[in-house]
């Protein structure tokens, strides 16, 4: 199993690859186990954001990742670990929302980020929201110009 291999691995690059493999799951039960695992002590502190960012960027897992990461207990723990800044915090905040393409997701992300204590991540949240707004406009433009299949693209 990938988790066992991660825990036994000592080389940082290989550990990172294993975490990215976990983040690529498409089955909801596996995604949930991966998200839960990321928050355990088995995953090194510097690696938690790698897993969470990877899951949040995974089309099959975005909604589950958003719900998990924005839950009060998880968000509080992440803020305590990373809220003072750093690449992992920045990457996580951007990956949480920047793949969204609908007004509904834009509104939800805006509401969450406006109410969250983002500390060093405030500019990253603003950038993510700008990207989402651009995604919404692009999706609508392409849909209006003959790509009706984009109506089903909602994550």
Oligomeric form of this entry? single chain
Tell me the radius of gyration: 16 Å
Distance N to C terminus = 29 Å
Order of helices and strands: HHHHHHHHH
Mean pLDDT over the residues: 92
Helix content: over 70%
Structural class designation: mainly alpha
Count of helical regions: 9
Percent of residues in β-strands: under 5%
The largest sheet, given as strand count, sense and whether it forms a barrel, is: none
Structural write-up:
By secondary structure, the protein is mostly helical. The protein is built from nine helices and no strands. Helix 2 (12-23) runs parallel beside helix 4 (45-57) and helix 8 (103-115) runs antiparallel to helix 9 (122-144). The radius of gyration is 16 Å and the shape is globular. The mean pLDDT is 92.
What is the structure about, briefly put?
The chain has 155 residues and is mainly α.
Task: Sum up the structure in keywords.
0% strand; mainly alpha; single chain; 155 residues; 70% helix
Please specify the SSE layout and strand pairing.
Elements: H1 2-8, H2 12-23, H3 28-38, H4 45-57, H5 62-69, H6 72-82, H7 87-97, H8 103-115, H9 122-144
Helix pairs in contact: 1-2, 2-4, 3-4, 4-5, 4-7, 7-9, 8-9
């Amino acid at each position: 199993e990938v988790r066992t291999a991660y825990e036994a691995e000592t080389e940082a690059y290989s550990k990172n690859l294993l975490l990215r493999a976990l983040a690529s799951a498409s089955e909801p039960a596996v995604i949930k186990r991966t998200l839960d695992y990321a928050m355990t002590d088995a995953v090194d502190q510097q690696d938690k954001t790698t897993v969470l960012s990877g899951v949040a960027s995974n089309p099959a897992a975005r909604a589950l990742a958003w719900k998990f990461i924005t839950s009060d207990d998880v968000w509080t723990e992440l803020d305590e670990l990373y809220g003072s800044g750093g690449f992992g915090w920045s990457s996580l905040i951007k990956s949480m929302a920047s793949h969204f393409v609908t007004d509904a997701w834009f509104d939800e992300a805006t509401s969450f980020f406006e109410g969250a204590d983002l500390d060093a991540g405030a500019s990253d949240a603003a950038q993510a929201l700008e990207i989402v707004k651009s995604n919404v406009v692009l999706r609508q433009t392409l849909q209006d110009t003959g790509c009706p299949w984009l109506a089903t693209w909602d994550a």
